[in-house]
Amino acid sequence: MTLRGHEPIKLDKFNGLWQRGDVDSVPLDHFTACRNVTAIGDDAFGTRNGVGIHQTVEVPLEDVKRVYNYPTDDGNTLIVLVINNAGSGEIYHVVNENTIYGPLLTIAGMTDFAFLPYAGRGYISPFNTFDVGGLNLEKGLENEFLYVYMGDGTAARKAAGTALTGALTIANGAVGNTDAGFHLFAFVAETDSGYLTPPGAITGFTTAALSSVSFSTIPTSGSPTIVRRHLVATKVIASYNGNTTGYTFYFVAGGTIENNTATVLNNISFFDADLLDDASHLFDNYAEIPAGAVLTLYHNRLVLAATFDDISIGIVSAIGEPEAISQITGIIVVPPDGNPITNAQELRDILFVTKRARTGSFVDNGDEPSFWPYAVVDNALGCPVHGIATVIDSGSSSVDYLIVCTYQGISLFNGRYIAPELSWKIEDLWRNQERNEFRKIQILNASIQKELYIILPDRRLLIGNYANGMDPKKIKWYPQFFIMGVNTIAVVNIDDIIIGADL
Amino acid sequence: MGTFIARTSALVSGGASFILVPPAANTAAWYTQFGTPVSIILAMQSVLADLRAELNSVAIPVSFADTLRFQVDDIYLDGAVSPVSFSGLPAGFNLLSAFVSISDLAVTVTPPVTGTAEYFLQQANGTEGEADTPIFPYDMSFPQPTMLEVINNGIGLRVAIAATAAPGFSQIFPFYNFFISGEYEIISFDWTLENAGTPVQIGDEVRIVNNIAGAGGLAGVSKVCVSFVDGGVLQTFCAIIDTHTDDLITFLIPSGLGEFTGPTTLYVTLYGNGIQFTGSVTLQTTLQLLFLDASGIYTLIKNKKTDTIYDRDNPGQTLEVKIPNPYARTGLVGG
What we know:
The structure holds 2 protein chains of 2 kinds. Chain A is mostly beta strands. Chain A has one helix spanning 427-431, and strands at residues 31-35, 37-40, 44-47, 50-53, 64-72, 75-83, 88-96, 99-108, 112-118, 121-132, 135-140, 147-149, 157-158, 169-175, 181-191, 200-207, 211-216, 226-233, 250-257, 265-268, 292-298, 301-307, 313-318, 321-325, 331-333, 343-347, 350-355, 358-362, 374-378, 390-391, 394-395, 402-405, 410-413, 442-446, 451-455, 461-465, 476-480, 485-492, 496-502. Chain A has a domain at 169-284. In chain A, 1% of the residues lie in helices and 46% in strands. In chain A, strand 9 (112-118) and strand 10 (121-132) form a beta hairpin. The relative contact order of chain A is 0.12. In chain B, the strands form 6 sheets. Chain B has an 8-stranded antiparallel β-sheet with strand order 8-7-10-4-1-12-5-9, with helices on both faces. In chain B, strands 14, 16, 17, 20, 21 and 22 form a 6-stranded mixed β-sheet that branches. Chain B is mainly beta. In chain B, strand 16 and strand 17 form a beta hairpin. Chain B has 2 domains: 2-186, no CATH class; 191-322, Immunoglobulins (Immunoglobulin-like, Sandwich). Chain B is built from 4 helices and 26 strands. The chains are: A mainly beta, B mainly beta. At the A-B interface, strand 1, strand 4, strand 38 and strand 39 of A face strand 23, strand 24 and strand 26 of B.
């Protein structure tokens, strides 16, 4: 062929990286390799966006291991784990570029943590990676617990709490009303996070008709987190057998002390028929909630999973009471297979639970969590601990699907994993990642930019631009390299992309 | 194919009471100064408050355990009298096999004392061979260890004695010829680092080239890793290859190297794809790796053309650095 007859090839469309199969099979509008470039418009590409500092304080945080969004009542903030010079994990609250609280919590051996914002508070569960026969597993730290942070810069404290102790002094009060007979009385303490302790200082007393009841020597708590105490009582016990916790307690209307100092509550009148709000379940709650590697919210219940001792169970709180978790009816179990639960996420009213290579589901049937039915969704695909895409400020669905990092690739999930996976074009890149390091993956869906951001085990940031469609053949992949060891990512204020880096 | 012996040169940890005598020329490794036979319990009596006497008199079981870790520096090739250091190994040195071995070591419990007495050879700290076995081969299956790892990880010896109380004593007999030996080959390529010795840090480009024009061979490399020693521990990180031809490999120093004391010597190891060559070759030329703390919290900023990082040496200040080597290669051009 003469030069005159040569038909030039025009390259005017660039659709990102293609690393799948032989290099000779790469389409002309894709790259065989690229770094630090990104999509511009529909078809072009250019140098990636630069990074700027997020903190302007004199000593900004360093050696950052994990960043979560922490939406508070009045701002979109960050909760951050760093490793201090002693090698311990420290958690800070970064309110904005020049305000930082902490350390809120310092725990030796904490290399990662699960986080759940709830009603302005933050629930923190420290966890670590354990080498079990050469396999890295994530589970809660031994002898560690779920912590609650109030969002105000004060140190985080253990969630839940113990019952008041002591004995009440009870006497007939002024003229009033009770059903005459023997009752058990007790007080429930309430923390500043709304947690109700089990009834304590249980004391029996025989009330008289036409008399109210008065209480003194009401115990106070040594914990500064107790903000009020509530009177609870049984109905008349016809034949008392001495088992103080064997009867049903109810909250008594008008029996609340709005402080942790008063020791007297006088002239409380009630009829047994007024006792409606059951408090007996409080006896069964964890006083200390073991740390786990997974935290999520489902039907306004806190779900924690993968504790040090029980890697295949989840514990589920009462509705609207994230620290009230029954040790009897709050347990859900994924069939044990030696692998811990790695994620729990609600989609379409179903709680999907993953292990590294398994997915199942629980459905809230209106009964206690222990009675929720479990169903197998996929016995081959699951994901690592940070492997479900975060949408804006929570691990969540967007447009009725989840984006999940499985061993086969980055997949859409709408109740089943959709094939081919989104990362079909870069299958070789994905499979070359160290499988035992998949815990380092974190994925974020920036819906406004129409981009996925994925931290890879090899410390690159993989960007998937889906401006042309969330479709395996239309998404454009661009790996990015930073001189800082990028290992965590978050989005605040709708579309500000935050990256954290360790040493 | 040739042979090598890598001998111990110093005690790194354990055995505080040992007094080590250097090897005589090429005949033996370091050894204890004690005669034959001698009890380690006596040798360690300053640590253990004369355990032998205690064994003779007390009525409760006693036990003793200690791990001796040795540094390995001197490498003798093919029976040579003079050693070479790792950096003095010939270009293309490729490890084929390696064994930790020891001569004459015995650990005993002498009747009427009863109990157990065992020793274990160690490669890297915590990697132990079978009990009372004087040879411990390295696992050469993929990914096989590099000579750099073998040397830098050192060797060790763990002794464990659990004796019931009765008159008598336990002994560890003196040992000699505690070394690593094995076979190697020279791969007939001559690869080197451009600008060897140049200080580099995370994100800097490294270029591996052929010293002999047209000799090629780099196409047979499947993986490139960089290593450095920090606190006596070899740290290895694998890099992402940017350019990969028969005569040239380029890559960026990977990020996430952790905290280390710099500058430190950076080694580059090439792993074969099993076709042109198997195993690994650590280049004899090295670089100087500088420590860079760019950790922290950052924000991606649209259309920003540089990266701004925290300047940890000057609190409150920042540094502007270039975005590391953007590039894109199509299947048609430069593929």
